[in-house]
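Subject: Predicted fold for Hydroxysteroid 11-beta-dehydrogenase 1-like protein, 222 residues

User T.R. writes:
Posting the sequence so we have a shared reference for the thread.
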Amino acid sequence: MKVLLLTGLGALFFSYYWDDNFDPASLQGARVLLTGASAGVGEELAYHYARLGSHLVLTAHTEALLQKVVGNCRKLGAPKVFFIAADMASPEVPERVVQFALDKLGGLDYLVLNHLGATPAGTRSRSVQATRWLLQVNFLSYVQLTSLALPSLTDSKGSLVVVSSLLGPVPTSFSSPYSAAKFALDGFFGSLRRELDVQDVNVAITMCVLGLRDRASTAEGV
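User M.O. replies:
I've generated the structure tokens; pasting them so everyone works from the same file.
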């Protein structure tokens, strides 16, 4: 069933275009690591960064889908596009992804965290196993990626973009582990924003809170 929702792309770029001083040329040559880039919101974000001339490292679970997105980004004008297939359910993967991006791009100006995982097939949605898996994919991997990329973002005075969900602050039935993970995202990055401000670290944090959506309607809306 299709429901009306906020699109991730609109939420992300609204924060830029709302300010009259935003210059799209500022993203030309920017070094971007984008997760969850193989479909939906992440795919559309990759195409917009490509049009603006950013250098990209794209990651997602499925290599074949990533290769398609990489090819499209090159056609749209991205000067450099690399990809690394990665399963964020594995705790050792975030370090490999960030190191790959740093090696390929020489640093980061943007870290865009957009990947997500639903309850694995064959697992009860509220079981401890499912909750542990969901927290690793939808929360702990975000924390790991941020921690690993933050030194480079600090050097570049870069930006951190986190795609979250309305199911964090407004939980609904039959989504308890997923809602818990998204609630944790809001708390962690809200606190981190304050910590960076106190420490005079010039790294912007943008939270994009999406409603429920299906991939087809999201891409069509963008």
